[in-house]
Amino acid sequence: MWDICMMAWRIGEILDIDAQLEWIREAGFDGVGFHASPGQPGQWQGIDPLATDAKARARVRNALTRFSMCEIHAPFESVLAAGSLPASTEALLPILDFAGDVGASVVTVHADPPT
């Protein structure tokens, strides 16, 4: 059986992340994904790992226990490319730490498309 997940980033009139998680849960989705970045005011909402202390991370982790899985979307600036893989991977460490703290099992990153 498949888990059907919903990406939280732009539900309604740019609901805050807590309201988005609640909407996703009430809609019956099994899992959730969200951006590990603050987002763009008035455009989309995420959670900024650098501005999320241990208490806030515990609150997020608790909110995510209602889902069977969680995926975190790395910031768009976190691009993985063959020529910069070690440095790019190093830059992901705060995102990976955040994912572990909140119980996410997947971190999605971007790769530079070949030119």
Features of this protein?
about 120 residues, alpha/beta, 4-stranded parallel beta sheet, two-stranded antiparallel sheet, 4 helices, about 35% helix, about 20% strand, globular
Structure description:
Helix content is 33%, strand content 22%. With 115 residues, the chain is α/β, with parallel strands linked by helices. It is built from four helices and eight strands; from the N terminus they run E-H-E-E-E-H-E-E-H-H-E-E. Strands 1-2-5-7 form a four-stranded parallel beta sheet, with helices on one face. A two-stranded antiparallel ribbon has the order 3-4. The protein is globular and about 45 Å long. The protein has helices at residues 17-26, 54-64, 85-91, 93-102, and strands spanning 5-8, 31-35, 39-40, 44-45, 69-73, 79-80, 106-108, 110-111. It has one domain.
Note the beta-strand portion: 15-25%
Order of strands, widest sheet: 1-2-5-7
- What's the story with the biggest beta sheet? 4 strands, parallel
**Low-pLDDT windows of residues:** none
Number of separate strands: 8
* Mean pLDDT value: 87
Query: Can you give the helix content as a percent range?
Result: 25-40%
Query: Rg, please?
Result: 14 Å
Determine the oligomeric state from the structure: single chain
Helix/strand structural class? alpha/beta
Number of helices: 4
Shape: globular
- Whole-number tally of structural domains: 1
Straight-line distance between termini = 38 Å
How are helices and strands ordered from N to C?
A: EHEEEHEEHHEE
TL;DR of this structure?
The chain has 115 residues and is of the alpha/beta class. The chain has helices at 17-26, 54-64, 85-91, 93-102, and strands spanning 5-8, 31-35, 39-40, 44-45, 69-73, 79-80, 106-108, 110-111.
